[in-house]
Write a structure and sequence with these properties.
CATH architecture of the largest domain: Orthogonal Bundle
CATH topology of the largest domain: MetI-like fold
CATH superfamily of the largest domain: MetI-like
Strand content: under 5%
Number of strands: 0
Largest sheet: none
Structural class: mainly alpha
Mean pLDDT: 79
Shape: globular
Distance between the termini: 58 Å
Low-confidence stretches: 305-313
Radius of gyration: 27 Å
CATH class of the largest domain: Mainly Alpha
Length: about 325
């Protein structure tokens, strides 16, 4: 009888402990959900404000009446952006530039990371150390500018493609991911007579789609949002009109809007400043929305691509 009672007591205690753990788990889930919701609002509210401002009348913007909902609906800013050739040309060129840079960057990243997984690679440790040194020591802006000038790459699209075509940090992530692929797969392919290139194409690349998608998105976002290189390396007006990415155009729009607002304040012409701000907000939406639409397609690769690549290194 005592054995039965002791067993019942133990079972009751286990159930009680399980209920306590279940409550603590639910509490932790609610806390995490609340933090995620707050972070979502932090990211979403500014975008909603920009969207509302781009669809509002200039008078309401001047009075600061617009927050998350448009006041005095007005789509003239979008009409102006869509009918201005330089905006559409810049948007199309940025899309082409992003695709070219992404394909080139991910190709170079794979080519740099793949040989480093072979333990018998001669000078492999020295090459890895050389890569790491470039993360901590760089020539700087002026030497880069002088180098591109000597190579006759200023005022050309090559100045926007080659200088930042590879990231050592992404190479390390790719190498770590490839390390995680079982060596037995590579050895089996080598026994069947496959060379290093065939092993890469038929074994490693099919298994590396998550990290390839993740790093491609990193490269694409970096190129899409980049404008400092175009600001420094495109000096000729003809080159600016032809090769300016959308973010550089947005930068110029903001600068012109600031000057217009200052001039309007001196001349008491508030409407002109409001119109400039509306066009500025519409340009921000055009520069932001296309790259945001890429995220849902690649979101499922994020966790697999980054966390698996961090397992071994």
């Amino acid at each position: 009888m005592s054995v039965v009672n002791n067993t019942g007591t133990l079972n009751h205690k286990k159930i009680h402990d399980g209920m306590i753990k279940s409550r603590s788990t639910r509490t932790g889930d609610w806390i995490i959900a609340a933090i995620c919701f707050i972070l979502m609002l932090v990211c979403l509210v500014p975008m909603l404000h920009v969207l509302a401002s781009s669809l509002s009348a200039a008078e309401n913007l001047i009075r600061n009446d617009v927050f998350l909902w448009p006041k005095g609906w007005n789509i003239e800013a979008y009409a102006k952006v869509l009918t201005t050739p330089k905006y559409l040309r810049s948007l199309g060129w940025t899309a082409v530039l992003t695709v070219i840079c992404t394909v080139l960057s991910i190709t170079l990243t794979i080519c740099a990371a793949y040989p480093l997984i072979y333990p018998n690679l001669k000078g492999g440790k020295a090459i890895s150390l050389f890569f790491l040194l470039t993360m901590y020591f760089s020539a700087g802006t002026i030497p880069n500018y002088l180098l591109l000038n000597e190579l006759k790459m200023l005022d050309t699209p090559y100045a926007l493609i080659f200088p930042n075509c590879i990231s050592v940090f992404n190479v390390i992530i790719m190498r770590s991911f490839l390390y995680g692929v079982p060596d037995s797969l590579r050895e089996a392919a080598e026994i069947d007579g496959a060379g290093p290139l065939r092993v890469l194409v038929q074994v490693y690349l099919p298994l590396s789609l998550p990290v390839i998608a993740t790093l491609s998105l990193f490269y694409a976002v970096g190129r899409w949002n980049g404008f400092s290189d175009a600001l420094m390396y495109l000096k000729d007006e003809a080159a600016k009109d032809k090769y300016s990415p959308i973010q550089l155009l947005l930068y110029n729009v903001i600068q012109n809007a600031t000057k217009t607002a200052e001039q309007a304040a001196l001349e008491n012409a508030d409407t002109s400043a409001g119109v400039s701000k509306t066009i500025q907000m519409a340009t921000v939406m055009f520069a932001t929305v296309p790259i945001l639409l890429v995220y849902p397609w690649l979101q499922r690769y994020f966790v697999a691509g980054v966390t698996i690549g961090a397992v071994k290194g």
